[in-house]
Amino acid sequence: MGPWSTYRLDDFLLFSPRVYWRLFEAENAALWPLHLATTLAGLALVGLSLRRPGRAMVWTGLLLAPLWAFVAWSFLLQRYGGINWAMDYAAPAFFVQALLLLAAALMPGGPALGRLDAIGRAGLGLALAGLLLYPALALASGRPWAGAEVFGIAPDPTVLVTLGFLLMARGRWLVLLLPIPLLWCLFSGLTLLAMGEAQAWLLLASTGLAALLATLRLMRLGARAVRE
Amino acid sequence: MATAALGAAMLALPPGRALAQPAPLARAIPSSGERMPAVGLGSWITFNVGNDPALQAECTAVMAAFFAGGGRMIDSSPMYGSSQAVIGRGLAALGRPDALFAAEKVWTSSGANGPAQIDETRRLWGVERFDLLQVHNLLGWEAHLDSLFAMKAAGRLRYVGITTSEGRRHDLVEQIMARQPIDFVQLSYNPVDREAEQRLLPLAAERGIAVIVNRPFQQGALTRRLDRAPLPDWAGEIGATSWAQLILKFILAEPAVTVAIPATTRVDHVRENLAAASGPLPDRELRGRIAAHLGAL
């Protein structure tokens, strides 16, 4: 290897955009109509979070954990891993995140929802964007609808929705639950940027916003702990 | 499958072209004298198509057209994702053409892991042995060169080489070329990336080291940029009908270059690339004009 400064972002891109987007077409064709179930389940969780926040994070964790594991196995390992050896490392990280989400949902003192503050409302917006807006990006980018990225099927919307729910929640578990989703968004955003895809900016902006809001949330948590 | 892919490649030819196409220019590998068609086939990005059957078939068609046009050298690396498996599948579909010159790389920082990686690569290609193994981007080069020289001495490998790209680590490449008995060096060279002309190409000629030129089109960025401009009339003086052919003719006119290995997913492009290695090549004056023209665009 040469000095890192001599490398451009696209030097790390191992595949063409055409091959990348066809992964989603193949995955969607294999799994349809599971997309309807994952999207409806995600919307149901949003509704539960707004109407009955008390137990919402338990159900959120119980839904998100298997979806993270499913996306890791079905998409990252079976599809994306075929063209990107980095998935050998990303997929285990997804499995770890699944375990963390499960543990946070089941163990006492896990993240909890309260009244939505400004950060929580931004998280709600992010979750809804991941559920409803992200699949439409395929059409907006001139790609076929058959290649839409859908929550619970494709990694990016699954991770964005997860980040949204985490921003809506409070609790020390966030320190453990946030790094993997944020790192994935950064990785995927840079990959899309190397491919010259405009939606890279949407993902990177969401990542930056989520990281900023999460930091604020954790700082408030820390300040409260000091006061107590 | 083999017949279908080969047939698809042949059907795309203009009538009468299949038999009329002249054999590409061949250059001698200095360490052996073996003649090698001067245009090979790279696989970086283009052959990394994963498990997509339609795209795998496209790659097989490209390989079929490559062999039908007189090509021999196919180059890949463990770094290239699924490319090695796609090449292996294509070779099996085409009946493992005798013409194949299999060029691969070892790409791991651990010298101890090199032999296992080479075995896995051989399994993916479905070949008994490689013609050429290169240390990819000089990663772990000292340990790997020892292993590769031992393989060559044992008759399990024909040629040993090293690679770099995009002008990286030329100082170390130069040291290795000067001190190690390598057969090949692979580097980036084209009309707008000419650093290799300063020391590496003259040293290769002096030391009798074959030169493989990678990224002749800067991974397509150069040809995409040039496609916006018309091909100059004087390109016709050497029979170049596209920017890609003009670039390849510029590269092949450098006497130290043995093979250029453009990568493509298209049958028409592989034929166009092979055709660049027939007919006249630019002289010194015209090479200067090509470099100046492309540099100004």
Architecture overview:
The complex is a heterodimer of chains A (228) and B (297). Chain A has 228 residues and is mainly α. Chain A has one domain (15-223). Chain A contains ten helices and two strands. A two-stranded antiparallel sheet of chain A has the order 1-2. The longest helix of chain A has 29 residues, at 199-227. The N and C termini of chain A lie far apart (52 Å). The mean pLDDT of chain A is 92. Chain B is an alpha/beta fold. Chain B has one domain: TIM Barrel, CATH 3.20.20.100. Helix content of chain B is 41%, strand content 13%. Chain B has twelve helices and nine strands. Chain B has helices spanning 2-11, 17-20, 53-68, 83-93, 114-125, 141-153, 170-179, 200-207, 221-226, 243-252, 267-275, 284-296, and strands at 26-28, 35-37, 73-75, 101-106, 130-135, 157-163, 184-188, 210-214, 259-260. In chain B, the strands form two sheets. Chain B has a seven-stranded parallel sheet with strand order 3-4-5-6-7-8-9. In chain B, helix 3 (53-68) runs parallel beside helix 11 (267-275) and helix 7 (170-179) packs parallel to helix 8.
